[in-house]
Specification:
The protein has 446 residues and is an alpha/beta fold. Helices cover 37% and strands 20% of the residues. The protein has a six-stranded parallel β-sheet with strand order 14-15-13-12-16-17, with helices on both faces. The protein has a five-stranded parallel β-sheet with strand order 9-8-7-10-11, with helices on both faces. Strand 7, helix 5 and strand 8 form a beta-alpha-beta unit. It is globular and about 65 Å long. 47% of the residues are buried. The structure holds nicotinamide-adenine-dinucleotide (NAD) and ligand LTNE7NMQ. The site of nicotinamide-adenine-dinucleotide has 24 residues, from helix 7 and helix 8. InterPro entries: Ald_DH/histidinol_DH, Ald_DH_C, Ald_DH_CS_CYS, Ald_DH_CS_GLU, Ald_DH_N, Aldehyde_DH_dom, Aldehyde_DH_Superfamily. Its EC number is 1.2.1.24. One of its GO terms (cellular component) is cytoplasm. GO terms for molecular function: succinate-semialdehyde dehydrogenase (NAD+) activity.
């Protein structure tokens, strides 16, 4: 059975070509790889199996484009990003259809991803003109120190299949805003969405060589080695598994690259006795089952205080039972809730990355914070409580980069990863501290 969508604009579906130096080209070897619909296993199409030679050509294009692109005004780069954002929204239904086709996520999730992905271009268009330096008092009387920010250069971007659009745009947005050029390696399982985005970059008028997208499946390691060993590539930004992150960091050592990594998670999700039960149940559903439980910031261990454990488990399981699968089949795993978990079980220490929710009972705040902090990774965490003092205490005690309080959704283009950035208080009051990382070089004295 084929789920091939009828696109309103079929030219967004790019088969057998990738985007280098403003042109749609095949792999130099002529080789291709197959991409399959994860729902049915049927063939979607083929993509170029790019190699070291193709990646080197893409790096050369980005290197040649950089001297001119870095001198464009931030305002002009903001316009390009805005245009790209508008084109994404104009083609939102086609992009969502491509995402569902190659990734398998539900159509509502795919539509949400397109809006989220486009929001990175909108947000970084607004940031582009604000990459100013500082004025600092010097230690010598009468002197002042000025700093300016410069684009770091060619960026190598590597992204995963679980967000075929959003993980690419969250890297390209800041790169373009800062005046960097780039080579993106899209995920082998879901390359067509990234290629459709490249087509929209072309239509937005982004100069040739600024955005290059290479595709590979069998040659993934070779492409990664080329990006990480190239002296022309000044920064690598990677989202994916911790194991591959470690490898890329080692490979980048010889050329001393700047690195930004978003790696695996194992988020604790804590429901205290005093939580608003409706908010907590809805938050757990949103955090655990968004994108079928395949997000790095998914609730992985759901800790529920004993006083509300039974009620929470019943209401949460009822919600999950009411899910309607768009189709059933061998490639789907039914959303599952497991109660009575303990810390010796595998789910307590491993990222599940799927639609399985394990519920752990706990008694005291100290006990749950200790359990939450046993993980060897600390990407995100969530908790639900109406006690304002507990909110600040627990938010600071959790050893994670992002904390959601009374919310299960913390993805936001304005929230930097790996920083305790987002605290959403009960009754919608909102506290946040933002550290915006544009892809800029270290500040140089004027
Ligand atoms: N922190 C985040 O924002 C975030 C987002 C999505 C996924 N993830 C994590 O990623 C994992 C699941 O995604 P995955 O299985 O696609 O991860 P993965 O690390 O296998 O793949 C991610 C990307 O890296 C590429 N890749 C794999 N091996 C490579 C190599 N040797 N050299 C260069 N590139 C290589 C893949 O082709 C893909 O494009 C989970 O652990 C998840 O938590 C994290
Ligand atoms: N980093 C992602 C989620 C990871 O899978 C996000 O932006 O939400």
């Amino acid at each position: 059975m084929s789920n091939a969508p009828q696109l309103k604009d079929p030219s967004l579906f790019k088969k057998d070509v990738a985007y280098i130096n403003g042109e749609w080209i095949k792999a130099q070897s002529g080789k291709t790889f197959e991409v399959h619909d994860p729902a049915t296993g049927s063939l979607i199409g083929t993509c170029p199996e790019m190699s070291r030679a193709d990646t080197t050509a893409a790096i050369a294009a980005a290197t040649a484009a950089f001297p001119t692109f870095r001198t464009t005004t931030p305002r002009q780069r903001a316009r390009w990003l805005h245009k790209w954002y508008t084109l994404m929204m104009d083609h939102a239904s086609d992009l969502a259809a491509l995402i569902t086709w190659e990734n398998g996520k539900p159509t509502a999730d795919a539509a949400g991803e397109v809006a989220y992905a486009a929001s990175f271009f909108e947000w970084f268009a607004e940031e582009a003109p604000r990459g100013d330096g500082d004025t600092i008092s010097a230690t010598v009387a009468g002197n002042r120190i000025f700093t300016i920010k410069e684009p770091v250069g060619v960026c190598g971007l590597i992204t995963p299949w679980n967000f075929p659009a959003a993980m690419i745009t969250r890297k390209i947005g800041p790169a373009i805003a800062a005046g960097c050029t780039l080579v993106a390696k899209s995920p082998g399982e879901t390359p067509f969405t990234g290629l459709a985005l490249a087509e929209l970059a072309h239509r937005a008028g982004i100069p040739k060589g600024v955005v290059n997208v290479v595709t590979a499946m069998q040659n993934t390691v070779e492409v990664g080695e080329t990006l990480t060993s190239s002296p022309e590539v000044r920064k690598v930004s990677f989202t994916g598994s911790t194991g591959v992150g470690k490898l890329l960091m080692k490979q980048s050592a010889d050329t001393l690259k700047k690195l930004s990594f978003e790696l695996g998670g194992n988020a604790p999700f804590i429901v205290f006795d005093d939580a608003d039960m409706d908010v907590a149940v809805n938050g757990a559903v949103a955090s655990k089952f968004r994108s079928s439980g395949q997000t790095c910031i998914c609730a992985n261990r759901i800790y529920v205080q004993k006083g509300v454990y039974e009620e929470f488990a019943k209401r949460f399981a009822e919600k999950v039972k009411s899910f309607k699968m768009e189709q059933m089949g061998a490639n789907f795993f039914e959303p599952t809730v497991i109660t009575g978990m303990n810390m010796q079980m595998q789910l307590a220490s491993e990222e599940t990355f799927g639609p399985v929710a394990g519920l752990f009972p706990f008694e005291t705040e100290k006990e749950v914070v200790d359990m939450a902090n046993t993980a060897d990774v600390g990407l995100a965490g969530y908790f639900f409580s109406k006690d304002l003092q507990r909110v600040y205490r627990v938010a600071e005690a959790l050893e994670v980069g992002m904390v959601g309080v009374n919310t299960g959704l913390i993805s936001d283009p304005a929230a930097p990863g790996m920083v305790k950035a987002l605290i959403k208080l009960h009754k919608e009051s909102f506290l946040s501290c933002q550290v915006v990382e544009l892809m800029l070089s270290s500040e140089a004295p004027m």
